[in-house]
Design goal:
This protein is an alpha/beta fold. The chain has one domain. Helix content is about 35%, strand content about 15%. It has a 3-stranded parallel β-sheet with strand order 1-2-3, with helices on both faces. The longest helix is centred in the middle third of the chain and has 17 residues. The chain is globular.
Length: about 110
């Protein structure tokens, strides 16, 4: 996501959206830490698409929700213009259209777009 934000920062587009296809679980080597800059996602709408559940999420669904809420908090604390999760990719087109028109309202904490 850090590399994606750098790439989007170099673009001269009026609208920047990062689509993330992931389980949103950081797989860093022991002792490795990633620190997001306060403006890492400035001007970027982040959409987590069809986030994959881990095997352990079935036993503890709250862990899945917590992982998404943690990423939302990190994205927004790093200057993100919005955060949204999508289970249904057919809704992405409408969301992108809303953002392009300047009326895209991302969801608040813990909310997703089905």
């Amino acid at each position: 996501m850090m590399l994606g934000s750098e790439y989007l920062a170099e673009l001269a587009s009026g609208t920047r959206v990062m689509l993330v296809f992931s389980d949103m679980q950081e797989d860093l080597a022991p002792g490795t830490r990633r620190q997001l800059a306060k403006d890492e996602f400035r001007g970027i709408h982040v959409a987590a698409m069809n986030v994959k559940r881990l095997g352990s999420d079935n036993a503890d669904p709250g862990a899945f929700r917590h992982r998404l809420a943690d990423w939302e908090e990190r994205v927004m604390a790093s200057g993100g213009s919005g955060w949204r999760t999508f289970l249904d990719a057919t809704k992405l087109r409408g969301y992108l259209g809303e953002i392009r028109e300047g009326g895209g309202q991302d969801r608040g904490p813990g909310q997703s777009q089905g």
